[in-house]
Design brief:
Elements (H helix, E strand, L loop, with lengths): L6 H23 L5 E6 L6 H14 L11 E6 L2 H14 L8 E3 L14 E5 L21 H11 L4 E6 L11 H10 L11 E6 L3 H9 L3 E6 L2 H7 L5 E5 L8 H26 L7 E5 L6 H14 L8 E3 L7 E3 L2 E5 L13 E4 L12 E6 L6 H8 L19 E5 L5 H13 L9 E3 L2 E6 L67 H4 L11 E2 L5 H7 L3 E2 L9 H13 L11 H22 L3 H9 E7 L12 E7 L2 H14 L4 H9 L6 H12 L3 H20 L1 H5 L3 H12 L6 E2 L6 E5 L3 E4 L3 E2 L4 E4 L3 H12 L4 E4 L11 E5 L2 E5 L3 E7 L2 E9 L7 H14 L6 E8 L2 E6 L3 H9 L9 H7 L1 E2 L1
Helix pairs in contact: 1-2, 2-3, 8-9, 14-15, 14-20, 14-22, 15-20, 16-19, 17-19, 18-19, 24-25
C-alpha cells in the first residue's frame, strides 16, 4: 500500500481477508457452502482504501496474510463515475495493483473466463437486455458477459469474489433493473444462474444487504468499522456550521455573497497553514445547490454574484454536475459540465453547481462550503451532499487552527425551526452523515481569551504568538514565567533552574501499589510541580503541560512494524538534523540480536541442530499392499527427502509472516555473507521462526524499544511540525496500552452563541465571553467554581483529542478515553495550579469504570493537580469524591459493588458535601 492504514482500516482488512479465505476454503470442500462478507464502513472511513488493501492481500498476500490462490474480483456498481473514481483511488492507494491488473469492462470485452489475479469493474447498466455485453454468438462477440461469469464459476470458482459497492441499495429480484441485474450476477436463489462462491458487500448501512444474503441461504460474516474510530482518526470534520437568516425572504444572493466570503476565508487560512507546514496547497471548493429546473437567468444571477464577490475568479473556474452532461447557459456565461469524480483533483475548479445529490460515492474533501437554495421540505437532498463534504482535506485533523476542521452549510430558505430540524438530523447521523458531528447553529468565532494572553493590548487575532502556526512551540517564545515546572528540590537559592515538564520524568510507583495501568505494563511518570504566577499567560502553560494519553487501538498492530515505522520517523530530516539518524540500524540490531540470543539458547540446550534437520527434509512414508487380497504383513517404510527450493520458499513465506517487516530476510543476510551460505541461513531462519516463543520475544523487545524511544525523544517530538507530530502519534495509538502525549489549546476555534454566557473561559470572543449549553449539574459546578475564585476554565472537547485532556480507562473490550468536562486553573499560595472538577453522574453508563480510570491517572501522576473532584446531585444534595485523598482513590480502584455501572455507593460511603 502507498498509504499507511489507520488501525481500524488494518483491522478491517485483516478480518475481511480472513473471512474471504475461509469462505473460499469452505466452497472448495462443499460447493453448496456459498458465503457473503459484509463490510459496514461509515461515511469517511475510507472504504476504498480498505477494499484496496483487502484485494492486495488476497492477490499477493502480505506480512500477516497468505494470498488466496487464483483470486479474482468483479467490482459491481450502478454508476460509471463511481467505478472510475474507485479505479483511480485504487491506483493511487496501491503499490501492487498496476493498471494492467485493473480492467474496466467495456462493450468490446469478450472472454470465456475472467483472468486470475485481476480486478474487473462493471457498470451494470451495460448488462441490460439490449446491451452488447448481454449477447453472444454474434459477428461481434463470442461470449456474453453472463457466460463469462457462469464459466468462471463452473470452471475456476476458487478465489472468485463479486464485490457489491454501495450494497445498501439491495438486491430484490423484481423491484428495479439494478436489483434484477445484481441478483443475477450473484446467482442462486430464484435466478437460473450459478451462484457466485463469495460475495463482498460494502455499505455504510448494510442491514438490507445482510438480510437478503441470509434469505439466499448464504453464510454471512460481518465486520463493522466503529464510527468513533473513524472520528478519532481525524478523517471527518469536527463541526458542521449552519448559516441562515431565520427565514427572511429575498436573501439568496446576500447569503451567496456570504458563502463566497467564507470560502475565501478558508482559502486564506489554508494558504497560511500549508505555507507554514510545507503541506500541499488546499484549494477549497464552494458548492452551490440550485433549485430544480433552474432558468438561464437564475443561473446567470448566481454566477455573476459569485464573480462580483470573488476577485480573480474566472467563469472557467465554475463547473456544473447537472444530469445533462453538457454546457449550461448562465446569463452571458457558458458553464462547463465536469465529471464529479474529477473535481477533487482539478485544482482549477473552485465552484460547483449541482441540483440534488451530486452522485453516490462522490468524494471531494476540499469542498468546504455549501449554499443550498433548496427549501426545508427538501432536507434529505442537503444531507446527502453534506455527507460528501465531511471528509478532511489532508485526511487528518488540523490542531493549530481548528476552524479548518469545520464545514459550512448556508441555508437561505430555512427558518429557525427548519434549521433545528436539519441540525438534529446531522447530529443523529443518517445514510450520508456519520452521527456525532458537532453542529453549530449560531456561529461564534473564538480566540484565546485576551485576559490570559501576554500583552493583551495587542490584536486578538495574533494571540497565538507563543506558538508557530502549526502548533509547535517556537524557539525563544516560551511564556515569560520563572521556574514554571521546576521541582522544589531542583532549585538553588537565588537562581531557579528550568526543568523539562514533569510528564517526561519517571518516578517509582507507590510501594506495593499495582493498578490497572501497571498490570498493562505502563510505568509511572513524574508529577508536575507548581506553576509560579508572574503573567496571566501562564494559564495556557498550566493546562497544556498536563499529562494526556493516546487511546490504543482495539486491535493493536505488530510491535515490529511499529518500531520500524518509528525508526523511519526518527531518521527523517525535519528542516534540520534527524532526531536519530541511525534509528533503523539500531532497531534492526536490537531485534536481530534478540533472534540470535534465542538461537544461542537453543544451541546451548542442544535443540538447534535437530530443528534445522527437520526443516531441511521431509518425512516420506511408503506402504505396500497386495492388489485384490488382504496384505499378509503390512509394513510402512519411512525415509527422508531433502526439501527442494520451492519447499524452502514456501516455508520462508510463512517465516516472513511470523517475523514481519523484512526482519527474517535481514537475519538471513546477516548469516549468509556468501552465496554458498544462503541455503543454510534460510534453513536456520525458518527453524527459528517456527518456534512460537521467538515471535513473542521479538514483539516484546520491539515494544520495549518503541516505549523507550518515545519517552527519550518526547520533548523533541513536541517541537516538530504538526504533520510530523501526527505521524508519531499514529505510532503511539498502535500500541497495546496508552502512550503519553501532549495536547494544545487552539489559538482560534468556533463556538455556538446558543447557551448561557460565562467569563474566564480560555477561549472567548473579543470581549472575553464564552457561551455554553450546559446541563444543570454542569451549570452548578461551573458557577460554584467561578464564584469561589477559579482563575480560568476550559471545557474539555470530547471530539478533538489533540485539543483535550484524555484519560485512559479499561473496559471489557479494551481501552477507552475519558474526556472530563471541565479543567480549572486555581491560584494557591501565589502559584497557578490545575484542577479537575468534573460533573460525573453516579448512574451514567460506565460511571465506575471511568472513575477507576481517573483514580489510576491521579495515582500515576501524584502532585500534578491542586484538586481532583467528581460531583453529582444525589438525594437533593451535591456530593463529591475527592480523588486526591488516598483512601478515596483506593476505594474507587478496589470497588466491586452490586452494580458496576452505579457509583452511588461510592458517593454514599466516601463522598463529601460539595
Amino acid at each position: 500500500m502507498q498509504y499507511d492504514l489507520y488501525d481500524y482500516q488494518e483491522t478491517a482488512k485483516a478480518v475481511v481477508v480472513r473471512a474471504l479465505a475461509s469462505m473460499d476454503r469452505a466452497y472448495q470442500e462443499d460447493p453448496n457452502e456459498i458465503g457473503a462478507v459484509v463490510l459496514a464502513a461509515p461515511t469517511g472511513a475510507g472504504k476504498t482504501v480498505v477494499a484496496t488493501a483487502v484485494i492486495e492481500a488476497a492477490l499477493d498476500g502480505d506480512a500477516t496474510t497468505p494470498p488466496i490462490e487464483d483470486a479474482t474480483f468483479l467490482w459491481v456498481t450502478d454508476d460509471l463515475s463511481l467505478n472510475n473514481q474507485t479505479l483511480h483511488k485504487m491506483v493511487a492507494a496501491s503499490s501492487a495493483l498496476s493498471v494492467n491488473r485493473l480492467r474496466t469492462i467495456e462493450t468490446e470485452f469478450d472472454q470465456e473466463l475472467f483472468d486470475a489475479g485481476r480486478v474487473y469493474f462493471l457498470n451494470i447498466q451495460k448488462l441490460n437486455v439490449t446491451g452488447n455485453l448481454s449477447k453472444s454468438g454474434t459477428n461481434s462477440r463470442t461470449w456474453s458477459l453472463w457466460e463469462t461469469i457462469a464459466n468462471t464459476i463452473r470452471e475456476r470458482p476458487n478465489g472468485f469474489v463479486v464485490v457489491i459497492d454501495e450494497a445498501h441499495r439491495g438486491m430484490g429480484t423484481a423491484r428495479s433493473t439494478r436489483d434484477t441485474i445484481v441478483s443475477q450476477i450473484i446467482g442462486g436463489g430464484t435466478t437460473d444462474r450459478p451462484a457466485v462462491p463469495v460475495v463482498l458487500g460494502i455499505s455504510a448501512t448494510p442491514k438490507r444487504f445482510r438480510d437478503q444474503m441470509t434469505d439466499r441461504d448464504r453464510t454471512v460474516r460481518s465486520h463493522t468499522i466503529p464510527i468513533d474510530d473513524v472520528r478519532g482518526s481525524g478523517l471527518l470534520k469536527d463541526q458542521i456550521i449552519l448559516g441562515h437568516t431565520g427565514g427572511v425572504e429575498a436573501a439568496e444572493t446576500t447569503l451567496l455573497r456570504h458563502a463566497v466570503q467564507k470560502i475565501r476565508d478558508y482559502e486564506q487560512r489554508w494558504m497560511s497553514y500549508c505555507l507554514a507546514t510545507n503541506e500541499p496547497q488546499v484549494n477549497p471548493v464552494l458548492v452551490v445547490q440550485v433549485e430544480d429546473k433552474p432558468t438561464e437567468r437564475m443561473l446567470g444571477e448566481y454566477v455573476n454574484t459569485i464573480l462580483d464577490e470573488w476577485p480573480g475568479l474566472q467563469p472557467s473556474n465554475i463547473v456544473h454536475v447537472f444530469g445533462t452532461h453538457s454546457t449550461a447557459k448562465a446569463g452571458e456565461h457558458a458553464i462547463r459540465w465536469c465529471p464529479p469524480e474529477d473535481i477533487q483533483d482539478r485544482a482549477d475548479v473552485r465552484v460547483v453547481l449541482c441540483l440534488t445529490a451530486i452522485t453516490t460515492g462522490w468524494d471531494c474533501p476540499r469542498a468546504e462550503v455549501l449554499v443550498s437554495m433548496r427549501v426545508a421540505r427538501q432536507q434529505d437532498l442537503i444531507t446527502q451532499i453534506m455527507g460528501r463534504m465531511v471528509r478532511t482535506p489532508l485526511a487528518r485533523r488540523i490542531e493549530s487552527d481548528v476552524t479548518l476542521n469545520a464545514v459550512h452549510c448556508i441555508l437561505p430558505k430555512f427558518d429557525a425551526k427548519a434549521v433545528d430540524a436539519i441540525a438534529g438530523a446531522f447530529e443523529l447521523g443518517d445514510d450520508g452523515i456519520a452521527g456525532g458531528t458537532e453542529v453549530i447553529v449560531d456561529e461564534m468565532p473564538l480566540l484565546r481569551n485576551p485576559q490570559f494572553v501576554p500583552n493583551h493590548q495587542a490584536d486578538p487575532a495574533t494571540v497565538a504568538v507563543a506558538n508557530d502556526v502549526d502548533g509547535s512551540r517556537a524557539e525563544g517564545t516560551e511564556p515569560d514565567v520563572t521556574d514554571w515546572l521546576t521541582a522544589p528540590e531542583a532549585q538553588s537559592p537565588g537562581a531557579p533552574a528550568r526543568s523539562e515538564p514533569s510528564r517526561n520524568q519517571p518516578i517509582p510507583p507507590p510501594a506495593g501499589q499495582v493498578g490497572l495501568w501497571e498490570a498493562a505494563g505502563i510505568g509511572h511518570e513524574a508529577a508536575a510541580g507548581a506553576v509560579e504566577v508572574r503573567v496571566s499567560s501562564d494559564v495556557f502553560g498550566v493546562l497544556e503541560s498536563l499529562p494526556t494519553y493516546t487511546v490504543p487501538s482495539r486491535a493493536p498492530g505488530s510491535a515490529v512494524s511499529r518500531v520500524i515505522r518509528l525508526a523511519a520517523l526518527l531518521a527523517f530530516r525535519y528542516d534540520g538534523e534527524p532526531l536519530e539518524p541511525a534509528a533503523r540500524a539500531l532497531a534492526l540490531n536490537t531485534l536481530l540480536g534478540e533472534i540470535d540470543l534465542f538461537r544461542a539458547e537453543l544451541d546451548t540446550r542442544g535443540l538447534l541442530a535437530a530443528r534445522i534437520a527437520n526443516v531441511a527434509s521431509t518425512r516420506f512414508y511408503e506402504r505396500a499392499v497386495t492388489y485384490g487380497s488382504p496384505t499378509m504383513f503390512p509394513e510402512t517404510e519411512e525415509s527422508s527427502l531433502v526439501l527442494d527450493d520451492r519447499g524452502i520458499r514456501t516455508l520462508m513465506a510463512r517465516a516472513r509472516r511470523a517475523l514481519p517487516e523484512g526482519l527474517i530476510d535481514e537475519y538471513v543476510s546477516l548469516h549468509a555473507p556468501d552465496d554458498d551460505d544462503v541455503t543454510d541461513a534460510l534453513l536456520l531462519a525458518i527453524a527459528l521462526a517456527q518456534d512460537p516463543d521467538l515471535p513473542q520475544r521479538v514483539e516484546k523487545r520491539a515494544a520495549e524499544l518503541v516505549s523507550s524511544w518515545l519517552q527519550r525523544y518526547h520533548s523533541a517530538i513536541t517541537r516538530l511540525p504538526e504533520t510530523a507530530r501526527e505521524e508519531f502519534d499514529r505510532v503511539r495509538r498502535q500500541s497495546s496500552s496508552p502512550e503519553l502525549t501532549t495536547f494544545t489549546i487552539p489559538p482560534r476555534a468556533t463556538g455556538d452563541r446558543r447557551g448561557s454566557m460565562h467569563l474566564r473561559h480560555v477561549l472567548s470572543d473579543e470581549d472575553g465571553q464564552y457561551r455554553a449549553d450546559l446541563r444543570p449539574l454542569e451549570q452548578h459546578v461551573l458557577e460554584t467554581e467561578l464564584e469561589h475564585g477559579a482563575v480560568a476554565w476550559y471545557r474539555n472537547p470530547s471530539n478533538r483529542p489533540k485539543n483535550a485532556l484524555v484519560i485512559p480507562w479499561l473496559k471489557w473490550d479494551g481501552w477507552h478515553g475519558l474526556y472530563i468536562d471541565f479543567l480549572f486553573v486555581h491560584e494557591s499560595a501565589g502559584v497557578l495550579r490545575p484542577s479537575i472538577v468534573d460533573p460525573h453522574g453516579a448512574f451514567m453508563t460506565d460511571a465506575v469504570g471511568k472513575l477507576k480510570g481517573l483514580a489510576e491517572y491521579v495515582e500515576k501522576h501524584p502532585g500534578v493537580f491542586h484538586r481532583v473532584q467528581v460531583v453529582d446531585h444525589l438525594d437533593g444534595r451535591y456530593r463529591m469524591l475527592d480523588l486526591l485523598e488516598d483512601e478515596v482513590r483506593a476505594a474507587v480502584i478496589a470497588y466491586k459493588g452490586k452494580d458496576a455501572d452505579d457509583a452511588g455507593e461510592l458517593y454514599a460511603h466516601h463522598g463529601h458535601d460539595y
